[in-house]
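User: Some background: our group keeps a shared notebook of sequences we're curious about, and every so often someone picks one and asks for a predicted structure to add to the entry. Today it's my turn. The entry only has the sequence so far, pasted here. Could you supply the structure so I can complete it?
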Amino acid sequence: MSSVKAVAKEAGVSTATVSRYFNTPEQLKENTRNKVTLAIKKTGYSMNSLARNFRRGKSNVIVVVIPSIGVPHFGDVLKGIETVAGEKGFSIMIIDTQFNTMPFDKMANTFFSNQADGIILLGSVSPFKNALSRSNSSEKHPPIIVSCENATPDISNFPSVRIDNKAASTAATEHLISLGHQQIAFISGALSSGVSGEREAGYRLAMDKHNLETVEELISDGNLTIEDGRRITRRLLNRQQYPTAILCANDEMALGSIYEIKNSGLRVPEDISVIGFDNIRYAEISDPPLTTIDQPGEEIGEKTMYQLCHIIEGLNVDNTPTIVPHQLIIRSSTATPDK
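Assistant: Of course. Here's the predicted structure to add to the notebook entry:
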């Protein structure tokens, strides 16, 4: 019987790409869609074969719920998940919520009816409180593991794999303070995210530790996009006294911030230092190269998938978070402020 893996091999693409073909085909290039279509015809694959596996009680499918496939860090984590899934004989089905909970909510009945072998919630899980509440009940459901999100009441009953976001944000802020910055802005992610809360807590901790005033007007929440980085930075620059440094909750917003600073006629880092989070592949080649916190996405993805496999195999996995080390990568976007 044909499988997603067979289709992927025939088309020369990943199993995640085949999943996107069925779920979000608009995200694929036309050439890629054509390859998958041809492979499906050659292999005789049908979504009905997946349904037959579901009825047997084993699908060999892992569902990955991701806020946005367009966020490079999530792509790195997904790559790690796919690597281990392939080793273990699982296919990946991706649900890209595009920061909207509706697709997952609509499909929750399917997944919580044991029609997937496991579920990985990647990134913020707070919007899925209702589904998570159901999974904590006596209702039978596939194993769930959380990746990249901090421990909050919503996910405290599930294993998770992540970095120490509070400590990482503290380190980033203290790097700026060590350079002589006092007016430091913080551009956060979505307020509903446990990660955003921890990173803001780390920023506040560093400011308090060094007896620096935390100016609430310098703290903003964004949506992890370049556009939000530009928009919020533009607002910061319109202040009578703009900050000398900006800490962003991810690299995309940091890149948007750098663009907006330079577009306004100011210099990075001479006038304003910028630091990001994630160490995506574009960080090293930005202008100037971006100082950032490295969190190893592929390693996080691999550890997440290995833990989920252990649960599926019936091994005991406790709910203590698995913490992956982070690292401050110092490049040219941060420097001592000009007097």
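Suggested note for the entry: The chain has twelve helices and twelve strands. Residues 64 and 120 are 5 Å apart (CA to CA).
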